[in-house]
From TrEMBL:
It comes from Eleginops maclovinus (Patagonian blennie). This is Beta-2-glycoprotein 1. One of its GO terms (cellular component) is extracellular region. GO terms for molecular function: heparin binding. Pfam families: Sushi, Sushi_2.
Length: 352
């Protein structure tokens, strides 16, 4: 009875030892590099089992054996197999455009762009496929063109260059003109844009200005009370000693308004009774200024005394629309000095 019990207790121990030994002699499913693959889904392999290795799609094998064997130790034999990405050919150049890429191996991408004024026909990108070819051919960049420019009623366009056929290249422009009395309203220049359409076309329109008004103390070259066409002109002048300031001619503008009218500016009297002045490059006594008047914008110089250095100096003043301001440094001479001792006046002594 004791012998049977001993055998019974020993049996589980022997069974466990056999299972454990078998487990230690098998190879687990090998861990492979990312781009290497093998067939089957088996998890355990007996010693002597062989596994064929291959590269994943898009990769090419290099170096070492492509087979590993499960050794009695439960380890797989070593392999130096490497899988490198397949290479696509270098892409052709893109006329009138550019291509951008970092590499030409499997899964690399090329992006295509056309130069301004050109439109792309084909795909704007390509990918290097697993078989070493590009997914799409190189696209084509064709020049943008516009139809001939639209012509407004009563108008025409003058192109910047000679046009052949019924199309115009991108960037080419022209200038619109209208048949008189019509004028261009809007931008007179037009251009074929990158979108293949023209910029906004102006219109031809008759523009008139109302009868012009006269100016104070002046006269016009016409007395007709009528509307005037675009670019018609009217001239102005001033009466007597009044001076015209501004353009003597006004023009009917494209907006239907006249250009700015001139004005007539009044002459000035020199507000001193006894003195010598400098006018138009000459020294004259004030009583010899007949009439006592200078024109608008004229410059008159009066003489002041530098008492510290005992010398005279001229100070300018200007007639502005009837107002001639006498400089503060000017001192009116006494009657006796002006009559008997005029040589002592600031205008007659040594100048500073």
């Amino acid at each position: 009875m004791e012998r049977k019990l001993a055998l019974y207790l020993l049996f589980p121990f022997v069974f466990f030892t056999i299972v454990k030994t078998q487990h230690d002699n098998v190879c687990l499913r090998p861990e492979l590099a990312a781009n290497i693959q093998m067939d089957g889904l088996q998890r355990f392999y007996s010693p002597g089992a062989e596994l064929a290795l291959s590269c994943k799609q898009g990769y090419t094998p290099v170096f070492g054996p492509r087979k590993i064997v499960c050794a009695a130790s439960g380890e797989w034999t070593k392999t130096k197999i490497m899988c490198i990405p397949k290479q696509c050919p270098y892409p052709d150049t893109l006329s009138n455009g550019e291509l951008h890429y970092e590499d030409t191996v499997f899964q690399s991408m090329i992006n295509y762009t056309c130069d301004e004024g050109y439109t792309m026909f084909g795909n704007s990108s390509a990918v290097c496929l697993a078989d070493g070819t590009w997914s799409t051919p190189v696209p084509e960049c064709k020049a943008v063109t516009c139809d001939l420019a639209p012509i407004p009623l009563f108008g025409m366009i003058i192109y910047e260059k000679r046009i052949r056929g019924n199309t115009v290249d991108f960037g080419v422009g022209g200038t619109y003109k209208c048949n008189p009395p019509y004028i261009v309203v809007g931008n007179a220049r037009a251009e074929c844009t990158v979108l293949g359409i023209w910029t906004k076309t102006p219109i031809c329109q008759v523009v008139t200005c109302p009868p012009p008004e006269n100016i104070d103390r002046g006269y016009m070259s016409t007395s007709e009370r009528r509307d005037y066409n675009y670019r018609e002109t009217v001239k102005y002048g001033c009466s007597g000693n009044y001076v015209l300031e501004g353009s003597y001619e006004i023009v009917c503008q494209a907006n239907g308004n006249w250009s700015e009218k001139p004005s007539c500016k009044a002459p000035c009297s020199v507000g001193i009774e006894k003195a010598r002045i400098l006018y138009k490059g000459k020294k004259i006594w004030i009583e010899d200024l007949t009439p006592n008047s200078v024109l608008h914008n004229d410059i008159v110089s009066v003489y002041c005394m530098d008492k510290r250095r005992t010398c005279g100096y001229a100070v300018q003043t200007q007639c502005i629309d009837g107002n001639l301001k006498i400089p503060e440094c000017f001192e009116r001479p006494r009657a006796i000095d002006y009559s008997l001792y005029s040589s002592s006046l600031p205008s007659e002594i040594t100048q500073c």
